[in-house]
Design a protein that fits this description.
The chain is an alpha/beta fold and 278 residues long. The chain has ten helices and ten strands. Helix 3 runs parallel beside helix 5. It binds adenosine-5'-triphosphate and magnesium ion.
Length: 278
């Protein structure tokens, strides 16, 4: 099966960036339908630029972005690509447009010209999926950050995209809101098979990803499963990033002479390891 998303020698330079300064520098990548891809990397490493290249908000300076076989550089196909890739950004307040939750979720499908009986059905489904179906008639601005972000996600999934691209959706949320959002996104991926590209600064959020890409200066510096990535604690620190707290703890225990595995990123696994120590 051909990959849902293909990046070929993808490069992007903003106006004013110097000759050797690329925001995104020669990325080659294939993302399959149903995958959960996490993207991390310190400030300015090119994550948001990549997100915007994916749905054609930005067009490649060099190379190509293909979604479902269609290229973002082809104006006739861009409209379809925008429908296939739903975007969720950092600030939920910038994404909510209506005065009532259900109207907000209906906004996207309305713009796509979906018939109103079908919209009703989609809005109901979408709000159930993000567990906001008890807030149908509420005012979005009175919700918590996590609730607002889940409404924003519902608005995107009501358009029935093939892929969800989330650029730091939890950056402005408190810990409760953060876990509500990551649990919702994981559920949509696992149960609805929605391909997910999840950009974050929080390593604890991505321990269940299929693949993690670590960005550095517009390039993919590391890629692999969470186990493969988080076992390289020193390398991650070199890239000015953190590992999940529990991995850090296991790493420190190991450094202090306790014989423990390195690829630990869940509490259960650490407990198991400690209990099996002789
Ligand atoms: N509109 C712009 N004009 C010029 N340069 C830009 C613009 N937006 C981003 N850049 C530059 O492009 C590079 C990549 O930026 P980008 O926003 O993609 O990084 P990021 O990984 O998303 O960072 P953050 O973690 O802070 O969100 C940086 O060097 C940044 O300064
Ligand atoms: Mg960014």
């Amino acid at each position: 099966m051909e990959p849902l998303i293909e990046l070929k020698n993808l490069c992007y330079k903003y106006e004013g960036q110097s000759k050797e300064d690329w925001a995104v520098n020669n990325i080659n990548l294939e993302i399959n339908s149903g995958e959960f891809i996490a993207i991390v990397g310190h400030n300015g490493s090119g994550k948001s630029t990549l997100a915007k290249l994916l749905n054609g908000l930005l067009l490649p300076t060099k190379g190509e972005v293909r979604v479902g076989g269609k290229s973002t550089a082809n104006e006739d196909e861009l409209w379809q690509i925008r429908q296939q890739l739903g975007m969720v950004f950092q600030n939920p307040d910038n994404q909510l447009v209506a005065n009532i939750v259900e109207e907000d979720v209906a906004f996207g499908p309305e713009n796509l010209g979906v018939p109103s009986s079908e919209i009703k059905k989609r809005v109901k489904e979408a709000l159930e999926l993000v567990r906001m179906d008890n807030f149908t008639r509420h005012a979005p601005h009175k919700l918590s950050g996590g609730q607002k972000q889940r409404v924003a996600i519902a608005g995107v999934i009501a358009m029935r995209p093939d892929c969800l691209v989330l650029d730091e959706p939890t950056a402005m949320l408190d810990p409760v809101g953060r876990s509500e959002v990551i649990e919702t996104v994981e559920k949509l991926n696992r149960e609805e098979g929605l391909t997910t590209i999840y950009i974050t600064h929080f390593m604890d959020e991505i321990i269940n990803a299929d693949r993690i890409l670590v960005f550095e200066a517009g390039e993919v510096a590391l890629s692999g499963t969470p186990a493969e990535i988080f076992s390289q604690v020193d390398k991650i620190k070199e890239l000015a990033l953190e590992v999940p707290q529990i991995t850090e703890l296991a790493y420190e225990l190991k450094k202090s002479g306790i014989d423990i595995a390195e690829d630990i990123f869940s509490i259960d696994r650490l407990v198991e390891e400690i209990c099996s120590l002789k």
